[in-house]
Specification:
The complex is a heterodimer of chains A (80) and B (489).
Chain A: H1 2-27, H2 35-78
Helix pairs in contact in A: 1-2
Chain B: E1 8-12, H1 16-27, E2 31-36, H2 78-91, E3 98-100, E4 103-110, E5 113-120, E6 123-129, E7 131-134, E8 142-143, E9 157-160, E10 174-178, H3 182-191, E11 197-202, E12 212-213, E13 217-218, H4 219-223, H5 226-231, H6 240-245, H7 251-267, H8 286-289, H9 302-307, E14 312-315, E15 318-321, E16 325-328, E17 333-335, E18 338-341, E19 345-346, H10 354-359, E20 381-383, H11 392-407, H12 416-433, H13 448-458, H14 471-477
Parallel strand pairs in B: 1-2, 1-7, 2-3, 7-20, 9-18, 10-11, 10-18, 11-14
Antiparallel strand pairs in B: 4-5, 5-6, 8-19, 12-13, 15-16, 16-17
Classes of the chains: A mainly alpha (80), B alpha/beta (489).
The complex binds flavin-adenine dinucleotide (FAD).
Flavin-adenine dinucleotide binds next to helix 1, strand 2, strand 4, helix 3 and helix 11 of chain B.
């Protein structure tokens, strides 16, 4: 369980970091957008991804399983 | 595209879009005339069917710079909204711009500006102007009334829902309401206990959005946040993060929408058995269906009335009329003496000349525009209100502000080629996945957040509207409301 949490958190941290960079790229240097707000938004984004990384991973796995099952079911129903 | 210096403008339509446009243009020193064929301002709110009103809470549906008074109910009734629009006119001093009871019948290019033909009680007049803003709305051209075989021989009344001004018209009658949108649901609900028998006939159902999710959480918290905006199919100009979420991350939005569907099925009792063992469960997934032209926040008790049999629901098309019956495609025969079509409105621009429609690239799903407002091949012509959203008043107010900034040269437009490319990609994006419909070109709905972001960025304003130390959290989880845009309108 703790290993799973660790993996989820690590994945969250990486994704969050990338998300933060994309926020910086889109906003920093643009007229009208306060850099402080951008940095604060980026840091929070990274923090939230890291905090909820394991939950997001769980939902992703659940979604992948159900999505796969529903595709299979639909294919079976569509088959003559 | 705006050519030359704009000194005066004609706005066609005195609904929300027209009034917001007049307010913004006059603030830039442009002299405005607002024509409306109705004798009362307000557009769809000037007059409506029995009990008509706004379907979303008042904090979402008000002018950002002119809040609704506290005493107005949480879901604003139509007549109160009309009164509020009158107050808006007085507050911003635009009443003098209004020329009500005046219909624009034709529009022609003349030099950089336009010549209009307008018609009022006294006759026809010609008007010259530098800029024309079309704010004629999506729902006020002509009622959409299907032609059904045998309707000439039907001895009862065939009405459009907009004609049912007083529900007493239906007293003691056997009424079939046709449609599954808000107006059909409203009329059918109001007819219970007044009419002798109420049927509701619809070909397909749509996912209803309850006023409160799970009976607890106002729907805006579950539908109108940035988190949810990330779950919907990616916007035409989406961010790399959204694109990733909808490719590798796709199981996440997929699971999210299936859970939402499950909750709605339970809460709204969509499994309720109706005529012929059918149910109210929609055929299409919610993340697709939400972009159809029918959005319904049903009045409390609507679905319960169906399960209790107070409204007899039939999921079928209409085949034909006899003298006193409506025969459905599924073979059922309804004995009725009044049929009310809650089948919406046609949009159209009867006053636009053919060459202009061609220049605008009009298609069966409407006119595609740059930022839903301008077309580079129709200089000094703008549209406000061609963008259906859940918060139309905010959306149209932002459009009006954006337009006034373009006219004042505070917002620089891209080159003609870039604008045409943006229009082409908008058209391709919508036509590649959104449900077909006469107003698809104007459909934004849950994408309104992304659209607002673009308008704000063009105007040099920050799209992240939430404030305070916890602003990033609020951005994700707290829905936007009109007041968030107060300082940019
Ligand atoms: C019952 C109902 C409930 C709704 N609830 C919501 C809601 O909860 N949330 C939401 O976002 N939206 C809602 N809407 C959508 C609503 O239409 C828009 O929010 C908004 O009111 C449209 O405003 P508008 O000014 O663009 O157009 P309109 O209000 O349609 O005004 C257009 C005006 O143009 C005039 N006009 C047209 N042609 C001419 C001409 N040739 N010459 C002169 N005048 C002309 C018309 O007379 C009309 O007054 C609802 C609509 C209805 C009918």
């Amino acid at each position: 369980m703790s290993t799973y949490l660790l993996i989820g958190t690590a994945i969250g941290a990486v994704l969050g970091f990338l998300h933060m960079l994309s926020i910086f790229r889109a906003r920093l240097g643009r007229p009208g957008l306060a850099p402080i707000k951008t940095v604060w938004q980026g840091i929070w984004t990274w923090f939230l991804w890291t905090l909820f990384g394991a939950y997001v991973l769980t939902f992703w796995i659940l979604g992948a399983v159900f999505l796969g099952a529903s595709k299979l079911l639909n294919r079976r129903q569509a088959a003559p | 595209m705006i050519h030359g210096k704009i000194k005066n403008a004609v706005v066609i339509g005195a609904g929300i879009s027209g009034l917001a446009t007049a307010k913004n243009l006059t603030r830039k020193g442009i002299s405005c005339r607002v024509y409306d064929r109705n004798s009362k301002l307000g557009g769809v709110w000037a007059d409506g069917y029995h009990g008509f009103g706004v379907q979303i809470p008042k904090d979402l549906y008000e002018f950002p710079d002119f809040p609704l008074p506290d005493e107005v109910p949480h879901y604003t009734p139509g007549p109160e909204f009309q009164k509020y629009m009158e107050e808006y006119c007085d507050h911003f001093g635009i009443r003098d711009c209004l020329q009500l009871g005046t219909r624009v019948t034709a529009l022609r290019r003349s030099g950089d500006g336009w010549t209009l033909e307008v018609e009022d009680e006294s006759g026809s007049n010609i008007v010259q102007t530098d800029l024309v803003v079309i704010a004629t709305g999506l729902y006020s051209e002509t009622p959409q009334m299907p032609e059904i075989e045998g309707q000439d021989q039907f001895q009862g009344d065939i009405l459009h829902n907009s004609q049912v001004k007083d529900i007493e018209m239906l007293r003691g009658r056997r009424v079939a309401v046709v449609g599954y949108g808000k107006s059909a649901g409203d009329i059918a609900g109001a007819a219970i206990g007044v009419a002798d028998k109420v049927y509701l006939v619809f070909r397909s159902t749509h996912w209803p959005v309850p006023r409160k999710l799970l009976g607890l959480l106002p729907f805006k918290w579950g539908m109108l946040t940035r988190l949810v905006a990330a779950m919907i199919p990616p916007y035409v100009r989406s961010t790399p993060v959204t694109r990733a979420l909808h490719t590798v991350g796709y199981p996440l939005p997929w699971l999210f929408w299936r859970v939402v569907e499950m909750l709605l099925r339970i809460q709204q009792k969509l499994g309720t058995r109706i005529a012929n063992g059918d149910t109210l469960i929609p055929v299409h997934p919610i993340d697709y269906d939400a972009y159809s032209e029918v959005t319904m926040v049903p009045r409390p008790g609507f679905i319960e009335s169906i399960s209790a049999g107070e409204i007899s629901a039939h999921r079928s098309g209409l085949r034909r009329f006899t003298e006193n019956e409506l025969i459905l495609e599924d073979g059922d025969t309804l004995s009725v003496d009044c049929v009310v079509f809650g089948t919406g409105w046609k949009t159209g621009f009867g006053f636009l000349p053919k060459d202009l429609r061609i220049a605008l690239g009009e298609e069966p799903d409407g006119i595609y525009l740059y930022r839903h407002i301008l077309h580079p091949d129709a200089p000094n012509l703008a549209f406000v209100g061609r963008a259906s959203s859940f918060m139309s008043v905010t959306t149209f107010s932002l459009q009006a502000r954006w337009l006034s900034e373009v006219v004042a040269r505070n917002v620089t437009l891209p080159s003609k080629g870039d604008m045409l490319a943006a229009i082409a990609s908008l058209r391709h994006w919508k036509q590649s996945w959104m449900p077909d419909g006469a107003a698809r070109s104007a459909t934004l709905l849950l994408h309104m957040t992304h659209y607002h972001d673009e308008l704000l960025l063009d105007m040099g304003a920050d799209p992240l509207r939430k404030t305070g130390i916890l602003a990033p959290l609020k951005e994700l989880f707290v829905p936007y409301q009109a007041s968030d845009f107060r300082d940019v309108i």
